[in-house]
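Backbone-to-sequence.
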């Protein structure tokens, strides 16, 4: 079988980015996808950015390459008859925001019906308008972006919509696996606003643990930027890499300089330090500076402009770019060894396939090959091994665990998961009630936010006893996830080929930042530096300022979602063929999909976006304005004359609405400063929530820029059941944020808090490996295992 999803028939009725991206992902890996368009074409055909030479929407092209297109009849009866015919034939129906899953089920109980919408069909925000700036404001992410005292930055592109498309794909693929066991399809729902909130959840748990709110005033990030001859470079200076930074930059004299030699003094003189680094690198090429730092294992990245990515030697070496006949196309977000993405076909003209016969499904998953998946949860019976740390890898395992898999988090006794904070001096903001306790590594909100529903097994993989135990676990596992640097598994003798020899149908997923191969493959990265490498930061910032990022490691959860989708694609293939495979999720390349239209526009039009705060050429206003209280903000947007008139009436009454200076969008673009001044005066003494509610009631997109406290108290998220109260044996009971994937028959859920360090060592040895009592005790006394981190870990 050439493609993982070959024979799957998908009817794409969506009119928005999230649904069309979900369907595009399914099509990339073999599904037969037809875009069912209104007579005047899909709404995404009219979304900017456009290709200058012919006016083609690069949003549409990015979302719909490889699909067929058929026109829906204008006559309501004929349209309904055609839709019913598609519902009967399709395996998956991607519905518009106002679609009805029950209508699909009545026609075809085996179909999976996905509905993505900004806020859902019920709840307190059901009638709100949600462009990207609104979704980012509500998510809690925007609260972290930009400089204290200045307007927070929403970012770029349509990240919330693409993330929702990923979540939708995960839901659909899980529902297809459940169908293999039960014979029944189901409804899948994903809200863009809930998805956006799920991208920022660790800091909500921090608030729920101890009432503290992360502030832009004290970002506490050991990073800074310098401007080289040809671009900006971001450098992370962790305490344990200080000497390496000095070596890499030829600043050996600074290593023992009393201003910088000790961590506290270095933070106190941070501006002086980066001024010295700036002087050193000003005439050097950015890539050369990054390469020198990465050779010393210092995390650094160039902030590439989107157009520069087309000339990337690393991407070229990886064979990343493709051509469709209509232009350049981005490479796959992830790579599968047995069932890679097929060649990219051009996007369809409207109604290009009207004369074609309707496709027939050939996608059958026999229950006996479905890995014992049960009807209770879609991935029940699946076992996942995680050799992961921090956010992206654990996030992938968390998504699978939410959907019912048993996930075993394999931890090292001498190199503890960095989110357990074992090496750090205990900071009260990390712990419940501000108290580290006797085992602070079990009480850290970062680790506990990401590892719910998992078992903790401590294995020293540098010890043969630990490696042998892992090999025995692989015999009983379905998936192994690793997000360490490329080559880590192979160096331990645990690479894909070695594991496949133990378990032929194992799925091994690796999440290297830059891929398993290529000139930059060994580079270390974090979410913010991946944004630099993916071209995102080059589009974000204040006018004439340095590149900015979209918040606290936004691309880590994006990487986790991509990995979960890739694994689910591989699981669907395995359920039909019995084949496992090696999955590669190069997180920078996966992230490029999220800003794909902007990258294509920069490359094809030859012009990079110029960062200008929150301003965009398609709406005025499109900005954050100060509200009552310290660092409190509200966003609003007027994308057309109707929204502007409604906004003007709320703010200034009939006089402002009738003001001829602001009558048209070109007028408003010319007078943005005047409009901003008017709105700033109006908002600065008012409550941000009240402003947003008044404007949304008038039909104007608006939202408070929410803090973690706002999210914790959100009526919308409460209505969605986003929070689950979980009891941790050492951290206590707290409300934990959830995931946005809602399945009607086999719903996911968070069921238990994150595990204490080594809490399930005995369970893994006795219940899963079924070792004898003597074997268990011998292993527990050996260097292969531990119940607490070793000193200095």
């Amino acid at each position: 079988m050439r493609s993982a999803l070959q024979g799957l028939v998908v009817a794409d009725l969506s009119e928005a980015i999230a649904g069309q991206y979900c369907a595009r992902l399914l099509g990339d890996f073999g599904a037969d996808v037809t875009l069912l368009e209104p007579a005047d074409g899909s709404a995404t055909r009219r979304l900017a950015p456009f290709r200058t030479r012919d006016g083609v929407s690069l949003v549409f092209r990015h979302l719909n390459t490889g699909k067929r297109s058929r026109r829906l009849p204008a006559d309501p009866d004929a349209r309904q008859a055609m839709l019913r015919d598609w519902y009967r034939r399709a395996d998956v129906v991607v519905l518009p925001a106002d679609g009805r899953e029950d209508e699909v089920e009545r026609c075809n109980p085996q179909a999976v019906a996905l509905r993505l919408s900004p806020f859902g069909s019920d709840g307190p925000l059901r009638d709100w308008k949600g462009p990207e700036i609104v979704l980012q404001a509500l998510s809690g992410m925007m609260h972290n972006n930009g400089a204290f005292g200045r307007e927070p930055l929403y970012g770029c592109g349509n990240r919330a919509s693409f993330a929702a498309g990923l979540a939708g794909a995960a839901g659909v693929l899980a529902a297809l696996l459940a169908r293999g066991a039960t014979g029944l399809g189901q409804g899948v729902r994903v809200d863009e606003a809930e998805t956006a909130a799920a991208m920022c959840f660790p800091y909500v748990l921090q608030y729920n643990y101890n009432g503290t709110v992360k502030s832009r005033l004290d970002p506490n990030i050991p990073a800074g930027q310098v401007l080289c001859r040809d671009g900006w470079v971001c450098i992370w200076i962790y305490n344990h890499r200080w000497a390496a930074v000095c070596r890499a930059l030829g600043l050996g004299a600074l290593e023992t300089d009393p201003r910088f030699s000790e961590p506290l003094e270095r933070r106190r003189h941070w501006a002086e330090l980066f001024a010295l680094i700036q002087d050193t690198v000003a005439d050097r090429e950015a890539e050369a500076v990054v390469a020198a730092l990465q050779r010393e294992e210092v995390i650094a990245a160039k902030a590439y402009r989107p157009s520069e990515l087309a000339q990337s030697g690393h991407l070229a070496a990886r064979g990343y770019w493709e051509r469709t006949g209509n232009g350049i196309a981005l490479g796959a977000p992830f790579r599968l060894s047995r069932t890679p993405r097929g060649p990219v076909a051009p996007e369809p003209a409207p109604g290009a396939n009207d004369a074609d016969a309707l496709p027939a499904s050939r996608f059958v998953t026999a229950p006996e090959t479905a890995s014992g998946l049960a009807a209770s949860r879609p991935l029940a019976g699946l076992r996942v091994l995680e050799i992961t740390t921090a956010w992206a890898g654990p996030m992938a395992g968390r998504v699978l665990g939410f959907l019912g898999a048993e996930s075993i988090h394999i931890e090292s006794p001498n190199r503890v998961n960095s989110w357990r904070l074992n090496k750090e001096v205990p900071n009260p903001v990390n712990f419940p009630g501000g108290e580290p306790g006797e085992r602070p590594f079990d009480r850290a909100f970062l680790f506990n936010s990401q590892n719910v529903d998992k078992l903790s097994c401590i294995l020293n993989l540098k010890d043969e006893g630990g490696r042998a135990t892992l090999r025995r676990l692989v015999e009983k596992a379905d998936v192994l996830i690793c997000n360490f640097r490329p080559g880590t598994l192979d160096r331990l003798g645990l690479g894909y080929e070695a594991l496949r020899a133990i378990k032929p149908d194992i799925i091994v997923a690796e999440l290297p930042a830059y891929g398993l191969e290529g000139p930059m493959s060994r580079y270390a990265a974090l979410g913010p530096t991946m944004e630099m490498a993916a071209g995102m930061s080059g589009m974000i910032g204040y006018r004439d300022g340095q590149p900015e990022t979209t918040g606290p490691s936004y691309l880590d959860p994006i990487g986790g979602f991509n990995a979960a989708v890739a694994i689910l694609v591989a699981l669907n293939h395995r359920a039909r063929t019995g084949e496992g495979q090696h999955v590669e999720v190069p997180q920078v390349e996966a992230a490029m999909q999220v800003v794909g239209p902007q990258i294509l526009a920069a490359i094809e039009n030859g012009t990079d976006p110029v960062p200008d705060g929150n301003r965009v050429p398609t709406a005025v206003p499109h900005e954050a304005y100060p509200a009552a209280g310290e660092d409190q903000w509200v966003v609003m947007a007027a994308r057309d004359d109707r929204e502007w008139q409604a906004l003007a009436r709320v703010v200034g009454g009939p006089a402002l609405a009738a003001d001829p200076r602001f009558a048209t969008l070109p007028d408003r673009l010319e007078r943005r400063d005047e409009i901003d001044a008017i709105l700033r005066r109006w908002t600065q003494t008012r409550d941000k929530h009240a402003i947003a509610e008044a404007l949304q009631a008038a039909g104007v997109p608006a939202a408070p820029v929410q803090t973690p406290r706002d999210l914790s108290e959100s009526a919308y998220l409460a209505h969605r059941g986003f929070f689950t109260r979980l009891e941790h044996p050492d951290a206590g009971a707290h409300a934990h944020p959830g995931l946005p994937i809602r399945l009607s028959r086999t719903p996911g859920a968070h069921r238990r808090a994150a595990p204490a360090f080594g809490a399930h060592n005995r369970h893994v040895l006795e219940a899963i490996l079924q070792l004898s009592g003597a074997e268990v005790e011998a292993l527990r006394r050996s260097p292969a295992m531990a119940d607490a981190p070793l000193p200095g870990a």
